[in-house]
Amino acid sequence: MAHWKATTCMRCAVGCGQHQRGVDEGYGVDKVRGNYDHPTSEGLACERGIRETENPSGEWLTEPLVRRGDTLRPATWETALGVVAAEFIGTIAQDPDNIAVLGSGQQTNEAAYALGKLARGGIGTTYFDANTTLCMASAVTAYYDAFGSDAPPCTYDDIPVAQSHVVWGANPAAAHPVLYRWILDSAADDDSRLVVVDPVESETAADADHHVQLEPGTDLQLARAVLARLVATDRVDRDFIDAHTDGYDALVESLPAAADAASTAGVSAETVEALATTFEDRTLLYWGMGVNQSTHGTGAARMLINLCLATGNLGPGTGPFSLTGQANSMGARVCASKGTWPGHRDFTDQDHRSAVAEAWGVPLNRLPDDAGPGPVGIVDEINRGHIDAVWTVATNPVAGMPDATNVKRALDDVFLVAQDAFRSETVEHADVVLPAATWGESEGTVMNMERRVSRVTAVSDVVDTVRQDLDIIAAVGHRIDDDLFDAPPLEPEAVFDELRGLTAGTPTDLTGISYDRLDRELAVRWPAPDEETEGGYRYCDADGESWSFPTETGRAQFSTATYRGLPEPTDATYPLVLTTGRRPEAYNTGVRTRDETTDVPIARINPETAGQYIELLDRGRTVVESRRARVAVNLTPDAGVPTGALWMDVHHPAVNELTLPAIDPDSNEPNYKQCAVRLASPDTSTTVTRAGIARPGTLDDD
């Protein structure tokens, strides 16, 4: 009989502790249950995380594949790695920046660290990033602007203490069920409430005491309206502002009239006042992709942080809390050398660069000077002919990036290596496919959204033709520079020890978090500079009285932002706004839950809006067109969607054929949430042009 082993759920970033048990014979996970001893979740677990760990329904990759002509054919590991190494070595000899590497928030800390070490220190490419930039970069940038450091100041311990729970542009009922239970429990207290800000009536909004339904893409303006109202009515915490912050006067000077900003956001003055009132109590302000995935994402996140600073909502039971989607998005940012060096060391600081080069044993001049343009910028560089080879690890850019048709074309023009556990849209375009272990088969650590590090453990072996992410990365790296890694297999604990040594003395200090300590305590928050301590609420003492921020002045920073309008506003040709969101039963781009992704995506539409397009429906099916693509959909009436808008499932692989590749100028995060679309007759075979020329079967013929 197989034994239960403690591990961490990898579905989302809550970081719930699990017990898993492998099958008695063969390969795979048999049973999963919550771990009552785990300090993060204390036995709680969502059925989605359990189901997708026990019985994922995607198509497994079981052996290396190499493209022969138009077909991916089975190959040995030696052949596949030889093809990859030969191509990469030849490309590096021409220019290291001719290779791009895309990692993931699905990797362990150890694999993410190794991939960054190889990309930055072995290859030396500027073009290394991860799919975490597609969801969290705007929040990260705003945190740095305000506090001089990434990651939320608050922890899960603050949720029961808060009175006002403001969920802005997020749907934790679907995305983070265990976290959402804590929020609901706290909001149910007599002196507490749940307020949701979202253009769509989500599962979370349906539970709210108050739902603010703003115009899509106007989060920045609504936040500015609330700030302006608080300032005008003298409901700011001047003592906290004067003692611990800089830039307040400049912020106030930059604010519009509350009524004007509210009008842009499509809400009333009464709604703005109601939102302002929530900040008079102890407030936790949670936000997610609805805020971040916008060309105003950083500005909107800054304003949400400003709301907390201005009202003194910083300290235990209060604060700005960005909700992370992927299980190890935090780890990718701490470990992977993506936008900073390990430990959030500044990318351009010469002392930090020297320390990293010395630790890795590589020449300082091999390290790139620039952190890169983000995933969308990498696709742009491919299209400009500047990149010849791309390596994707545990990510699916063909389905997960905006303007997906353009991404497909770009990746077809390069030598593409896809490393994954399941067959994906990206795999279909690859020249070499490297099959990797998945949940229940991997060893290492992850970090959840409140900065807790915990173990993931293997309860099942893998077939001989599948390898650990860490070992695949090391095998490629060993062929490129045999001093960079030992020949695999590597011990994850040794890699983690190397990583935590590089974080010593940094804001994310992991030196006190050893595997032995994790075996004893199961989960430990950083910073943890020694074996006896762990991080709590950041930037203040235990009483929340003494504050210090890692900024130039040692004080928190207010910042300003200007609203520029939607990057692709509606017009007579494209009169509807498309926004996207998560479904509870699906996972990322659907590769792990593929049997739950229908061939035709669902588009939710307000019945009033749907009534204007009856002539374009064929048994509920129609076509959504943007300036980039046309996608057949099943149209579903839903009064929770505002008039003039469509809501589509972010997990469906066809949806991002429609979305817009515009990015936030500060964070490089794409604008997934708003683009202009129209409905068209499903019997029309023509496609829309980039110029927006009217086609037969569309409303323009009426």
Automatic annotation (TrEMBL):
Gene3D superfamilies for this protein: 2.40.40.20, 3.40.50.740, ADC-like domains, Dimethylsulfoxide Reductase, domain 2
Pfam families listed in its UniProt record: Molybdop_Fe4S4, Molybdopterin, Molydop_binding
SUPFAM superfamilies linked to this entry: ADC-like, Formate dehydrogenase/DMSO reductase, domains 1-3
Keyword terms: 4Fe-4S, Iron, Iron-sulfur, Metal-binding, Oxidoreductase
UniProt entry tagged with the keyword Membrane: no
Highest taxon in the source lineage: Archaea
SMART domains in the cross-refs: Molybdop_Fe4S4 (SM00926)
Keyword DNA-binding among UniProt keywords: no
Ranges of residues in domain 4Fe-4S Mo/W bis-MGD-type: 2-56
Protein name: Molybdopterin-dependent oxidoreductase
